[in-house]
Amino acid sequence: RSTARQIVGRRSDLVTFTTGAAAPSTALNHVQLANGMTLHYAAQGPPTGPAVVMLHGFTDSWFSFSRVLPLMPLELRIVAPDMRGHGDSSRPPIGYRIVDLADDVVRLIDALRIPKAVLVGHSMGSFVARKVYERAPDRVSRLVLVGGGPVANTPVLNELITAIDALVDPV
Hints:
The N terminus is likely disordered. Helix 1 packs across helix 2. The protein contains three helices and eight strands, in the order E-E-E-E-E-E-H-E-H-E-H. The strands form two sheets. The chain has a six-stranded mixed sheet, with helices on one face. Strands 1-2 form a two-stranded antiparallel sheet. A hairpin with a 5-residue loop joins strand 3 and strand 4. The longest helix is centred in the middle third of the chain and has 14 residues. By secondary structure, the protein is an alpha/beta fold. The protein is globular.
């Protein structure tokens, strides 16, 4: 396990933490999935370590986890993909349902030869993580759901979807 974290600086709007150890390096890669999608992802840690797959929210990318990655234990294998349509991953004209994103995650862990992983889902990523667990429970050791909800069918989300559907390319 990593050493206990210490507060090393504090302002009213920022708290900085350190483990006392050098921050692990984060590599940026691309992988082509069996369905033809290419996902961009950040990776850190040993390729044989216990795997943690971090799934970002809507309109975000792997970078949303960039402040957390240096604080993760060095023995963990961290994979933080840009889900399809986000960041530097493929942007197909269709295929953006939660089930499509979840299928990409299963194909990603297949391509990276990860037998089982902790899934960390933030916002939309929490819905994707839950769908991965529904479809492939044997591939998920734990779920960490951050800023999600019990359902995605809410008046606010429906209003957002209507507004997005009304957009005309290029956006």
